[in-house]
Design a protein that fits this description.
- With 153 residues, the protein is of the alpha/beta class.
- The protein has a single domain, classed as Mannitol-specific EII, Chain A.
- The protein is built from 5 helices and 6 strands; from the N terminus they run βααβββββααα.
- Strands 1, 2, 3, 4, 5 and 6 form a 6-stranded mixed sheet that branches.
- β2 and β3 form a beta hairpin.
- α1 packs antiparallel against α2.
- The longest helix has 15 residues.
- It is globular.
Length: 153
């Protein structure tokens, strides 16, 4: 799996306008809806927010991966945004979040959903790569960093 097979350049936004968690998730859902055929924006947003209410998807090191499996989508889709200023995401390390990847999958796509979560999580394990992602000043630059480091697994 390659992230860029599910993350087109049109679903990368730098900077996000939002300055808090729910607004950032909503902004990324709206970005997806504007670029990808989705059965229901409201069902997708509700699914992501319900998952977030169970436990924060702030995985640490300034990164969050709000996600959901939802009948409103018929294929795995990823949107990526970098915040203008870090926001509180109730991350596991207590640090604010600057980079947010929204992941949405069909209900029965458990394997690809987990694979995508794992690949996204690995983006922050490499300190040099994380610094490049956080330093990106445009959507194009952020996409180039992801694309240059996106290897088939």
């Amino acid at each position: 799996m390659k992230l860029t097979d599910h993350l087109p350049p049109s679903l990368v936004k730098v900077p996000l306008a939002a300055n808090e968690k729910t607004a950032a998730i909503t902004e990324l859902v709206d970005l997806v809806v504007s670029q990808v055929q989705i059965a229901s924006r409201d069902r997708l947003l509700k699914a992501v927010l319900e998952r977030e209410a169970q436990r924060s998807t702030g995985i640490g090191r300034g990164f969050a991966i709000p996600h959901a499996k939802c009948e409103a989508v018929d294929q795995l889709v990823i949107a990526l945004g970098r915040c203008h200023e870090p926001i509180d995401f109730a991350a596991i390390d207590g640090q604010p979040v600057s980079l947010i990847a929204l992941l949405a999958s069909p209900i029965h796509a458990t394997t690809t959903h987990i694979q995508a979560l794992a690949k996204l999580s690995r983006l922050v394990t490499n300190g040099a790569l994380l610094n490049q992602l956080l330093a990106a000043t445009s959507s194009e630059e952020l996409y180039r960093v992801v694309s240059a480091n996106d290897v088939e697994t």
